Each structure stands twice: as C-alpha cells, then as structure tokens.
Amino acid sequence: MASEEPAVAHWLFGDQLGPHFIDPARGGPRRDVPLLMIEARGVFRRRRFHRAKAHLILSAMRHRAAELGDRVRYVKADSYREGLEAVGDGPVTVHHPTSHAALGFVRSLPSVRVLPARGFLVTHDAFTSWAAARGTKQLRQEDFYRWVRQAHDLLMEGDRPAGGRWNLDHDNRQPPPRDVTALGVPAPYRPRESAIDEEVRADLDRWSRDGDVRFVGEDAPRAFPATRREALAALHRFADHRLATFGAYEDAILAKDATMSHSLLSSSLNLGLLDPAECVELAETRWRSGDVPLNSAEGFVRQIAGWREFVWHVYWHFGDEYRDRNVLRHHRALPDWFTELSPEGTDANCLSHALDQVRGAGWTHHIPRLMILGSFALQRGWEPRAVTDWFHRSFVDGYDWVMVPNVVGMSQYADGGRMTTKPYTSGGAYIDRMSDYCGPCRYKPSVRVGEDACPFTSGYWNLLHRHRERFEHNARMVQAVRGLDRLRDLDELLAQEAARED
To answer: Which Pfam families does the protein's record reference (predicted)?
Structure first.
C-alpha cells in the first residue's frame, strides 16, 4: 500500500499555541513539517469584539510566530481561505478546531486533513461512550466529573475521592470576610508588554481609525499571558500564592477586589498556552505536599477537569443547533447600555460594577458572569443567542465552544435542563450575602415593589411567575414557585415589571 502523501504544512489556529499542539509524540506533525499561521482580519470585522480580546489574541499569535522562527509561515490575510492560498494546493494538516464553523470549513477543503483535538483531558470518543452509557438525554456535570477523576486518578485515594467526598462545594461557598475591601492575597501575575504588543496596538488603532474594524471596551495594558512562558509564570504564581485561599471564597465578590484568589488562567488554557493536565496535576501536588487545603485543590480541579471539560464536550455532543435552543421563548433585544458595556446605564451597583470590569478588562470571575450578568439577562427575557454572542465577544476567554453551553445551557436555561437541573438565578438576597455591593446601592435587596425595589428581587419573582407552569414541575424549583402564593403584592410587582425599561 502506498504511503500517505506527507503534509506540506501544519496549520495552527490562534487558540492552538502551546507546545502540545506540535509535539509528534502527542499526535502532532513531524518536526520537519513547516507550520502555517493565518491572521485573518475578517474575523474581527464580522463581529464587534472587545478590544482587549483582539489585542490578546493577536499578541499571542505573533509572539508564538516569533518563537517558532523560520519554521512558521505567518500570513496576514482577510480570510482563512485566502491565507491557505499561500501554501498552494498541497496537503495541510490541522488539529480539530474549536468551533462548529471552523470545523465545517476545514472539512470542506479536500487538501486539509483534520487531526484529533488537543488541549483537553477527555477525547471525543471517550465522552461519546460515557454519554451513551448514561442512556438519557440529560447530562450532568457532577457525574462526568466523578468519572474524569477516576479515569485520570485525580485527587483519589485508591478508588475513593480524597477526603471521602467528591464534592466540596459546601466548603467553597463562603461569603467574603466582613469589613474588608480586599481579600489580602498576593496579586495575580501580570505580564510586561513587549514590542509585539506595541505593534498590535498600533494595528488595532489604525483599523479603528480607518473604520475597517469596530471594537467595544478598553485596551489597557495587557493583563493576561500571551506566551507559554508567561502562562507558566501565572500558573505557578497562582499555585504558590493564591490557590490556598481560592476554595473558600471562589463564589464571593468584593467590589474593590475583582480577582480575589481566582487563577485568571482561563484565557491561557483557551489559547492553548497551558495544558489542563499540568494545571490539575500541579494543584494536586500542592495539596499532597500540604501547601493548600483539599477544598481549594478540589475546587480548582473541578473547574478544569469537571466544568471546562464538560462544557467542551457538551458543545460537540449537542451539535450546532444547540445554540438556537430557546425553550423559555425569550426574544427581547439587549439594551444599548449593556452591549456598549456602559456601567452608567444602570443604577444597580452590582450590575454597574460587573459591566465596568468587563469594559476595562474583558473579564470577571464566574459568579458576576452567572449570577449578575447572566441572571439579569434571564430575568429580563433577553434572546439567548444574542446573550451568548455578547459573552463570546466581550470576554477575553470567550470562544464559541465556551459560551454556547455556558450561556444557552446554564446561564439562560434555554435548553430546558439538558445540562443543568435548574435555572441559575436569584433575588437580591443572594447578591447581598455573597458580595459587598448592596450596602451602597440605591436599591434594597429585600424590597420587591416601589422605588427602592431591587431589580434582581423583583425580576426573580417575575421570572418565576412568567414560567410557573414549567418551573413548578422541576423538583429543585417547586418550593420557590410556591413562594409566589405568599406574595401579597404580586399583582403590583407584575405591573411594575411590565412597565420597566431595561
């Protein structure tokens, strides 16, 4: 049998930048195969991305090209198709891309051969087998997480979870300490910009001036790693100085301490600069050496080996049509102040702070995303696909595979419970308990009607009423729905919400 025609180049997408994407021992191309990188400006022209996100992606790509030197051909083009013309009609290999659109495109090209995905702990085939064995349309992260822990021997003691419990969430939901404005832990790693960053910023400025590309948000000095070396420094600083306090306060919020003890590694993982295996293994090493408590190590491992892996596979398992799920039939448009990241557009202190953080950094941690930004969108009945697009464009770590399951499935409950057991939303009491936002706010979390009514509290009850028939059949929602019958001012609340302008 004739040998397969060798590839003339291996194509690296802009989120495949770590060494594990070109390691022959891990399914990458041979070391003598040239590499191709395509910087497609049309990607930024089609959608209005956060300026800091565009900067980070281009900086990371150009830094990687500089590291690879003569082995890589770096093509600046309007589209991927145009960029591929630089290598002619010869065969090209590429690792499985991270979006349905990109995968459909590369599979449509007869000259491109798609290699297995990299950058995740679980293969597509392994997940498919696990899901098939479940025998149900509903997939649950907790079941998947336990399976991954066992399969990869993560935080295990024999066949049992370390400490005797799989889930330490009960220990990891503490409110912030009282009477403090910051958690008091060492600051996260911050990179130093290079000449490449200056070049990127100049290009983005020119594109904006020419009206070729429009951005949203601010491009402050780059706050997230753009190279493998920076990402490793960020990982080890987190493990050495911040992981120990991560667990207990991972769901807490302080207005003047946006990062708390969070790792800020999501963008590095999603650019491919870090491998998830090295992250969870380091956390386990720190726990076994006695440097960090088990609840912190488990909380971090859960985020990566549990939730990140689950979201990746749900994205592919449910298919491209999943993004259009909208069982609650929410169709309202996002208001301009929200899409423009304008904190001045709302008097709600928590929402204003969250938008300000996104505008300035293109990042907030998971609780402002889920329980403030996402919860508000759900309560207001905004169209889930538009909310998904907003999160994708506005966050430096936002990619299609990240945001479709996180927003459609979790944040907006638009799939009706295929990946979560209930809608993730709350009244103002939760925000008051888990943050210091409510004290100086003009609204009162306990008030649901009138000038002082918290928009989250009134919005919560309005949402339950609007979808009562559906939620009263959900075991985890039935008690909340029954609470509607105890509201003497329900009619007044509903009239108030009907007249509210977002």
So the answer is: DPRP (PF04244)
